[in-house]
Amino acid sequence: MNTAPVNPGDLCNNLALRKAARYLGATYDKALAPAGLRATQFSILQRLASEGEMTITSLAEAIAMDRTTMASNLKPLAREGLVTVETSAADRRARIAAITPDGLDRMKTALPLWRAVQNQFEVSFGSDEAARLRGALEAVRDTGFEPWAE
Fold this sequence. Notes:
The chain is mostly helical. It has helices spanning 8-11, 13-32, 39-51, 56-63, 67-79, 101-125, 127-140; strands spanning 54-55, 83-87, 95-99. It has a three-stranded antiparallel β-sheet with strand order 1-3-2. A hairpin with a 7-residue loop joins strand 2 (83-87) and strand 3. Helix 4 crosses helix 5 (67-79) and helix 6 crosses helix 7 (127-140). The longest helix has 25 residues, at 101-125.
């Protein structure tokens, strides 16, 4: 009978998720590097391209990120001229992010790279399993925690 104590890390949902996220995130970062983007930057550009201009707060919520981290992620994209971040005319407290034509071009350049790594993952992991994984991860976000509530 094995009486060795269980390592709490072996049962930690957060650690398991972060390990997988770091592994997959590095894989997507490597794939997108030829386009000069990291996976998070690609996600931001993709969201702005599909939704149009958004407040930093709503963009952060859409990508499940706190507002301060989103603002930090937008800075290098703005420096490169891929997005603009301006004060809202309707509410001077809000800041609006929008993709620029250069940002749209960069996102379109990165899209085939993203599709290739996405396809490679689905072939390796399984398309049905990948769909179930996305569903399970979405369900994680519905567990009732409010990590960014003020």
